[in-house]
Structures are given as C-alpha cells and as structure tokens.
Here is the input.
Amino acid sequence: MNGGSYMDKKILVTRSSLPPLEEYIDEIKGIWDTCWMTNMGPIYQKLEQGLKNYLSCKNVELYVNGHMALDVAIKALHLTGEVITTPYTFASTTHALTLNGLTPVFCDIKPDDYTIDENKVEALITEKTSAILAVHVYGRPCNVTKLQEIAKRHHLKLIFDAAHAFGVRLNGEPIANFGDISMFSFHATKVFNTIEGGALIYSDDSLTKSLENLRNFGIEGPESVVQVGLNAKMNEFAAAMGVCNLRHLDENIQKRKHAAECYYERLKDCAGIRMIDFQDDCHVDWNYSYFPIVVDEKAAGCTRDDLFKGLQKENIFTRKYFFPLVTDYECYRGKFEQYQLPVAHYVADRVLTLPMYADLEEEDVERVCNVILSIMGK
Ligand code: T4K
Here is the structure.
C-alpha cells in the first residue's frame, strides 16, 4: 500500500463485521414472498435456535436492542428499591435501573479486570436491596461464583449485563449460564451483531411468558393483553444479519485475538501502560471485544488525554470507554449518595480503548502502537 495514503487512512475504535452481501441477500429474499418482516417470524426463529445451539443454553429471547432487553429483564424480575451495580459501564446499565424507578447503589470495581468488586458488595446490601446488576465489562467475566453465592445468601436476583461478552466462556462454561438473567447486546459495534439487537439468556422457564409478553405490548393472544408491555421485538432483517454473522463469528474472534496479541507484543514492555492480562488467564475464553489500556501518567510520561489527542492527530480515533463514570453524568449529578469509588475513578480517568475489530490489520496495530510509543518518547 502507498505509504502516504496509508497514513491518511482513518482508523476508528471499531468497525462493524458484515457478512458477504450475497449471503445476506440470500437470507432475506424469502421476505419478498411472505411479506413477513417482524413479530417473531421464521428468521427470528432460525436465529433463536442458532443461538441456543451456539451458546448451549436452554432459553433465549431476542429483542430490538440490548438496552430494551435489559429493561425487560428488570421488569420481569419485579425488582424494587435498590440495586447494587457498577458505575464503570455504558449509560444503558444505569438508565435501565433509574427508568424503572430503582435506585442504583454503586459498588467499586477491581483494578485487575474493572468488574464489580465482589468483596465490597455485601457491605452495600440493605433491607431495600432486591438485586445485583453486574457488568462483564469488555467481556471480562465478573466473579460469577462469588456473586451467585452473595445473591443466594441474601435472596437477591442476579442480572449480568453481558453486552460485551457474547461468545465468552469461563472454565468452558458459556458466560450467560450464570445468574438469573444475562443480557447480550448485538449492536453494530459488538463482536456479534444483528445491526441493532439484544438477547436475554435465562434458565428459569417460569420467566418465559413474561419475557415474551413484555416485548410485545403484553399481548398473549389476539384478544388477550395480560401485561403492560413494550414494543421491543427484533425484526426479520436484523435477525437475518445475525444468522449470517453467526457463521463467521468464530473466525472473527480469532482475527480479533490476533490483533490483541499484536498489541500485547508491541506494548508489553511499556512502563505506564496497563493491558488486560488475557494471555496468562487459562480460565477465560475471551472474545477480544475491546482493547482497553490504562495509562499511569507518572510511569508513562504522558497522560491518557495526550495519547487520545496525539492519536487523533494521526487519524486514529480511540474512545474513553468508560469516562466519565456514570455517577458523574450531568443527568445524575447530585442524584445519588456519594459512594467510595476510588478504583473506578482511577480507571475512568486513565482508560483508553484502542481500535479493535476483526478486520483490523497487523499494519494498523503497528501504526497505532508506533504513534503511542512516539508520544511516550520511546
Ligand atoms: N450495557 C453496556 C455495558 C453497553 O456497553 C451497552 C452498549 C449496552 C448495555 C446497551 O446495548 P445496546 O442497546 O446498544 O444494544 C456504542 C454502542 O452504540 C453501544 O451499543 C455500546 N454499548 C457502546 C459501548 O458503544 P457509541 O455512542 O460510542 O457508538 P458510536 O456511534 O460512536 O460508534 C463507535 C464506533 O463504532 C464508530 O466510531 C465507528 C463504529 N461503528 C459505529 C456504528 C454505529 C460502525 O462500524 N458501524 C456502525 O454502524 O455507543
């Protein structure tokens, strides 16, 4: 590739995976015969079955997006009062609670994998607590065993926001098989996408009716509306994208893994840059959904914002997922109690998510790392 034009090429934080166009057309062309475009049609059913097989799980429900799926999960579990959660997440997690009239109680995160600190959860439980909503942030699993124990001991529901964690396994077990309900996001920016979409995975069959009714106005039959529900259905075009993308998922995860290894090799000796230590962790099959670094300005000789701006000048667009912390959003300022969140603040102030997607090439990673190293004076 010509050097000049290559350096001009924009590299964004992520890039959607799309199947070959012919494959997608093949999947949707039946719609022109049936005119069935939504409301749990045949392609929806096909994707649902495909996901059950892929995830080795009993129950899957599909939704219009991950946020609505989370909203439905919260409603179906009849949560009340307070829910213990993480401030280190995307807006959706907290909004889903507050829009359901629940009070989020924020627990700090751990410095190694940025998930909720399970050792700090119990101290936050009160008589008003009804659930724990934890996030497998960047697809790194929370301490699911400990959280399940806590939830059981205190009779709390346990929901996992697994928006980033599709395809992740822990000790060989699919990540969604923990807790009461797990939510996946299938947004265009995710490892597996249905353009927009989401899913709930759960084991308790008694939830099925409610999880289905809630996504379709609470309608159970043509003359029967049994619940106050939403419109949160996944349409056939979205489902078709999922059917196609599922075929390429494993290959895409392998490509992401290669990109992550390239980053790791180039940055591993850089003082002041902390990466998720995925290579030594034999318990987790990761999906390489994001590639966060945490920049310690003293050791690195530059700040996270120096890297952000310096990369931007070179046409490389990273993101600060997740800065600011939810507790610092304008819409929430002064609304919550002041919680002790030193680790979450430290990480949010220093995190930068580097470009990561299946089609990120070795030379792209090389270019990103070269800019980082040059800003650091290496
Ligand atoms: N819980 C958690 C922990 C989440 O992170 C999310 C969503 C949810 C719940 C809710 O799930 P959904 O309801 O979204 O299914 C993006 C995504 O929109 C959002 O899904 C995701 N988390 C969040 C972390 O990232 P933005 O506002 O940063 O996306 P945007 O539009 O700036 O796009 C980022 C980059 O992605 C672009 O620079 C280029 C690339 N891109 C984007 C789009 C829209 C593509 O390649 N194709 C595309 O179609 O929120």
Summary: Residues 12-16, 65-67, 89-90, 92-93, 135, 161, 163-164, 185, 187-189, 198, 321 surround T4K (CB under 6 Å). DSSP finds 13 helices and 17 strands in the chain.
